[in-house]
Structure formats: C-alpha cells, structure tokens
Write a structure and sequence with these properties.
- The protein is mainly α.
- It has one domain.
- It is built from 14 helices and six strands.
- The strands form three sheets. A two-stranded antiparallel sheet has the order 1-2.
- It is globular and about 65 Å long.
C-alpha cells in the first residue's frame, strides 16, 4: 500500500526534520558544551567551579538526547549518508565519542574527593569534553561543504580516499572555530541566566562578548570563502525528486560559488545569514549590557541562522563528493524508501511533541538561579 504522502514530500520533510534535530542539539546541548569550555576561565575557586557546573547539572543528560536522535535520523532516513560520513569521519567520531563518554564521568567523579589536584584534573577533562566536540562538529560541517573524497563504483560500493589530516583544511578550521565561538557565546549567555550575580557571571559576560565578535568575524570569513574561494556543487540536469535512491543517477559538477545559487534564486533565504549576524551581534550587546534574555535569545538566533544558512545553501545536496561529483548524495538519491520514511514520520508525529512537552516541563521545573549557598548546602549537587 502506497503512503498517503508522495516520495518527494516525504524526502523534503525528512530533510527539514534533520535540520530541526541538528538545531535542537546545538541550542540545548550547545550551551552545555559552552559552559564546559568556559569552566576553567569563569571559575577561579572550587566553589565557583561547582556553581558553574551546576548551572547545567539538571539538564545536560537530557540535552544529549538530541544528538542521539540526529544520528538515528541520519541512519534511518539517509542510510547512504550515514555510511559515507561515518567512514570519512571515523577517527573524528571516535574522538567525539571518547569526549562525550569523558563528560558524564567528569560530572560524576569531579566532587567525589576533596583533593584540589583531583578536582582540577576533572575540571580540565570537562573543558576538553566541551571545546573538543564544539570544534569537531564545526570541522565536520566545513568538510561537508568542501565535499568528502568518496566515490561509488558500478556496484554501489563506496570507496573513501581521504586521510585524517585531510579533514583539517583552512575552510573546515574556520567552521570549527566558528562553532566553538558560537557555543562559547551560548554557554556564556546561559551562565548569565542561571548563575547568581558575582564573579562567575561577570567573567562569562566578558568572554561571551569576545565569542560573539569572533563568531561574526568567522561567519563573514566563511561567507567570503564560499563566495570567492571556489566552493560549491551544482546539479547539471533536473533531478527526479520521486526517483529511486541511487547516487549513480546523480548528474553533478563542482561549481565555484554554487552554494549561493539558492540565495540568488530565492532572496528570502538571505534571512538565515542575516539572522546569524544579527543574533551574534544581539548576544554580544546583551552580554555587555547585562541583559540576560537578549543575550540568550541572540546566541540562539545566531545558531539558528548559521545552521539554517548551511542547510539552505546546500539543498538538495546532503553530502557532496570532492573527487567524483557524480557520486554526491542529495535529498533525491540517498533516502530510504517511501514506506520507511512515512512509517518513521508517523512515529515522529506521535513522539516528538511528547519529547518537546516533557523537555519544556523539565526546564520550567528546574529553572532558577544557581547560587554559591545552594551548592555548599546541597549534597546532591555536583
């Protein structure tokens, strides 16, 4: 029995859902990573560092669910994308996995002993588990925009020709630093919302302003790289949105500047990069002026705008190939079957509102400022 939605519509919906999941992860777990990256610099004493850690202590575990959902969505909806990206990013993925395993261990063990050296070691482990994934995720996005060195043979066997060092080109490094700058700003904005007035908030505000300025400069540098640095891919003939998922049917070529094609064809898309710049500026102004709500809204808008810019510029591409453009994976040639997409969509339609409602409830119940007094008195806190 055919699904009630046509294949093209299902593919578009799942392309959009993938973006929603990535943005959800960046907005929620992003401030967790940012706070961890800020930990050694905003907390000078043990009490201040415990204060910093406990601003995310109630929610960081739940926020990681977005990362799991994103990986699951790629595997289920875009299996070829999952296979190729995990082959290309395997060393980076192992490093991220190791850091994400280190993070809960650091949270749980950090305050188990009073030793200053013990706690300092776990604080730096938390820092590494925050800044490391922030940079690596950005580097991964940069490599997706550049294209990965993979190809398919006539039997659809994938061949990957790159090495670990190939992942760290100039443009991916710009993207990695941009990701770190955005999440540090987001983490600083979160600290101003959650931490009591005092040195931790003041230091977070100062560092966050620098992160916002850095984000603006790096986002502008990334745009210049895309516009004038020879990046981009373009379909050479109209694709069949309802055709079979087979990358061998793709007719693609590398085309410098083609990542701006969608913006020229649909000027309304310029809202996304504008939101990226405006959000970062608002975050910096809000942090400097002491407006917590404006700072957090600005850092959230910046994340939404930057990720939205990447998605809108690449569509319909999801994972282009830098060595064989015809092997590039798009929304039209790399998805699961229509029945699979529809079945998963029904599950998402039922479960995602429940997840969102529960998340909103948890944040409402757990919200409130973390204070030095509460950290000192509550034995259940980290």
């Amino acid at each position: 029995m055919a699904p009630p939605l046509d294949y093209m519509t299902l593919r578009l919906i799942w392309w959009a859902l993938l973006g929603v999941l990535l943005i959800g992860f960046a907005l929620t777990d992003g401030f967790d990573l940012g706070v961890a990256a800020l930990l050694p610099f905003v907390g000078r004493s043990d009490a201040e560092r415990r204060l910093t850690i406990n601003t995310v202590g109630a929610t960081w575990e739940g926020n990681q669910v977005w990362f799991i959902l994103g990986g699951g969505a790629i595997f289920a909806a875009w299996p070829l994308v999952y296979a190729v990206s995990f082959s290309g990013f395997y060393p980076a993925m192992l490093l991220v996995l190791g850091l994400l395993i280190l993070r809960p261990v650091s949270f749980k063990y950090r305050s188990k002993r009073p030793s200053k050296a013990w706690r300092s070691a776990w604080d730096w482990a938390l820092f590494a588990s925050g800044i490391g994934p922030a940079v690596i995720f950005g580097v991964a996005v940069g490599n997706v925009l550049v294209g990965l060195p993979f190809s398919f043979d006539s039997d659809l066997r994938m061949h990957y020709a790159g090495g670990v060092l190939d992942l760290f080109g100039p443009f991916p490094l710009i993207c990695g630093l941009l990701s770190a700058g955005m999440l540090i700003t987001h983490g600083a904005a979160w600290l101003t919302l959650k931490a009591e007035k005092g040195p931790v908030r003041d230091r977070a505000r100062a560092i966050g302003v620098g992160g916002a300025v850095l984000s603006i400069l790096l986002f502008a540098a990334g745009y210049a790289f895309v516009a004038y640095g020879g990046l981009g891919f373009r379909l050479t003939s109209p694709a069949d949105p309802a055709g079979a998922s087979n990358p061998l049917y793709s007719l693609t070529l590398a085309a410098p500047g083609a990542w701006l094609d969608n913006f020229h064809a649909h000027p309304i898309f310029w809202i996304a990069p504008f939101l990226g710049f405006l959000g970062a500026a608002l975050a910096g102004i809000g942090l400097r002026a002491g407006s917590e709500a404006a700072a957090f809204a600005g850092s959230s808008f910046a994340i939404l705008g930057v990720i939205g810019t990447v998605g809108l510029s690449m569509f319909p591409f999801i994972l282009p190939s830098s060595i064989d453009a015809h092997s590039s994976l798009t929304a039209w040639n790399a998805s699961s079957s229509a029945s699979t997409l529809f079945t998963m969509l029904v599950a998402v339609a039922v479960l995602l509102p429940i997840v969102l409602a529960y998340t909103a409830f948890v944040y409402r119940v757990m919200f409130g400022r973390t204070t030095l007094a509460s950290v000192a008195l509550d034995p259940d806190l980290y």
